[in-house]
Amino acid sequence: MHPLLLWFHKTGSPPEFYRLSGKFLPWLIALTALTGLPGLYLGLFEAPADYLQRESVRIMYIHVPSAWMSMFIFAFMAVVGAVGLIWRVKIAEVLARCAAPIGATFTAITLITGSLWGKPTWGTYWVWDARLTSELVLLFLYFGVMALHNAIEDPRRAARAAAILALVGLINLPVIHYSVEWWNTLHQGQSIRLFASDKSSIDPSMLTPLILMAFATKFWFGASLLSRARVQVLEQESGKDWVRQLVRKELGTDDLGKTP
Amino acid sequence: MNHFPFILGSYAVFVVLLLIDALSPWFARRTLVRELAQRLKRENRRAAQSPTDPESSSTTSP
Q: Looking at the domain assignment, is residue A105 inside a domain?
């Protein structure tokens, strides 16, 4: 077997995943704090107010990274869902399942903070604008995926159904992204172009906290995903010896009414 | 218009929702480990009561 494929299968085994994820988790939490805390500080206290939006621009430092995450997580969920669907990799199914609530959280943050930004800027909390509506559809897609996972008792069948919904839902991502170009919307267009920085219309003093928060939310997602996946793996493997040993080790054999 | 309540509200929503996201797997794990420990205790008790009974040493969940 190809060494890469072998590594993939080895890492994909639940006990190995549990062990490895336990090593990565503290690093991801530390990276979240290292990027998120300065990002929040710069965004709230150091970045200048916008000439048009004034102080409400500070909402952007959480709204924009959350919006990016809402789409990134959906794409991630569809990709790992497809891996689970095609190659029946159990860990891929677990990751797809665990990504959904995190994505829904970021989508909810996007919608709520966007609404709170809209009131002082546009004069309204909500308009049925293409960008806002497509983002709301994304939230419903996340709810759909989560509902499928909870409604179907067999986790493998649930994962397959949810993966299909996630793959179909992918069509919404370009709609969200290009909605400001395809339709005449109230929502502003792109201010940041990652691959053509000279075309970005955002000042570096505002870009720095935004980039820091973008990294922080990515690391947050990694940490949250791993901690959720570890619980899911424990639950699915609860009858296996390695989980029993882990529980014994964690609580001590005396607590279980048995001496070694 | 005073923007402060909107900024405060946004950051509060951000922190609260992410806190819920962080705490929910922690609570789920605690509950699961407790359940598994109780299951192991029950099995150990059963094994101690009837060590020859093959049913008592089963590893499947009830």
A: yes
